């Protein structure tokens, strides 16, 4: 698939770069306000205080402009995510506290960036390039979540620790995404108290990871 950067013409002057950055900022602001791409390049230009000609000097279409804005935001969120998970665990932290901390770290990242992630996830349903890049970002978050708890593997009694951690992330992400209306309408969001949801998720994940799975019954022939 052709990269986003290949579709963006590099500026010849610093002023052109700054104008394009303003256009990308305007795209994000409009997406957050409208939760869709129901705006024109003229709307972007007006919001950014630049000419439509300056935008067309860098990209060929509104779709390419949106994809460029998406790539920039994924890079920003990725940097933020890596910094958050790089924080050292507190001394003397119990495994239960570690579960709470890791879930809380992922939850705060999603909650803080939900206004931007929501509309992009809706666009991913019809834009393969946004879907691919968003999928890679999701996979990176999953791996960070799993790696953070895998450091305490000796305290995980589930017979398949890696699968159990990945499943825990899937459940946690699904619950949080629904609450934050990521990839869905806002009608399904905000059900239940945020802190209570995090506490319930932590208890559920801890129980799942520390309780051995029941042995599978052999099938009778």
Helix/strand order, N-terminal first? HHHHHHHH
Using only C-alpha atoms, the radius of gyration works out to 21 Å
Strand-residue proportion? under 5%
What does the overall shape look like? elongated
* SS field, number of helical segments: 8
Q: How far is the N terminus from the C terminus?
A: 50 Å
Which sheet architecture does the biggest sheet show? none
Structural class: mainly alpha
Unreliably modeled segments: none
State the helical fraction: 55-70%
- Give the rounded overall mean pLDDT: 89
**Count of distinct strands:** 0
Oligomeric description of these chains: single chain
Describe this structure in words.
The protein is mainly α and 221 residues long. 67% of the residues lie in helices and 0% in strands. Helix 1 crosses helix 5 and helix 4 packs antiparallel against helix 5. It has eight helices and no strands. Pfam families: TetR_N.
Quick synopsis:
InterPro entries: Homeodomain-like_sf, HTH-type_TetR-like_transc_reg, HTH_TetR. The chain is mainly α.
How is the secondary structure organized here?
Elements: H1 14-34, H2 41-48, H3 52-56, H4 62-85, H5 95-123, H6 128-150, H7 161-180, H8 194-210
């Amino acid at each position: 698939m052709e990269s986003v950067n290949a579709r963006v013409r590099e500026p010849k002057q610093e002023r052109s770069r700054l104008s394009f950055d303003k256009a990308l900022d305007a795209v994000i602001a409009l997406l957050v306000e409208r939760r869709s791409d129901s705006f024109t390049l003229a709307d972007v230009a007006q919001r950014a205080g630049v000419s439509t000609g300056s935008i067309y000097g860098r990209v060929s279409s509104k779709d390419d402009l949106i994809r460029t804005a998406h790539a920039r935001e994924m890079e920003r969120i990725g940097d933020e995510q890596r910094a958050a998970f790089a924080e050292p665990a507190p001394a003397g932290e119990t495994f239960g506290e570690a579960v709470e901390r890791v879930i809380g770290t992922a939850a705060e990242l999603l909650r803080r960036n939900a206004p931007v992630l929501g509309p992009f996830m809706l666009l991913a349903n019809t834009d393969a390039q946004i879907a691919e890049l968003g999928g890679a970002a999701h996979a990176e978050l999953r791996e960070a979540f799993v790696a953070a708890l895998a450091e305490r593997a000796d305290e995980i009694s589930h017979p398949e620790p890696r699968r159990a951690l990945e499943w825990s992330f899937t459940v946690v992400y699904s619950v949080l995404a629904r609450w934050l209306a990521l990839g869905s309408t806002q009608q399904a969001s905000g059900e239940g108290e945020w802190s209570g949801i995090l506490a319930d998720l932590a208890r559920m994940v801890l129980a799942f990871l520390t309780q051995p799975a029941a042995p599978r019954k052999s099938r009778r022939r």
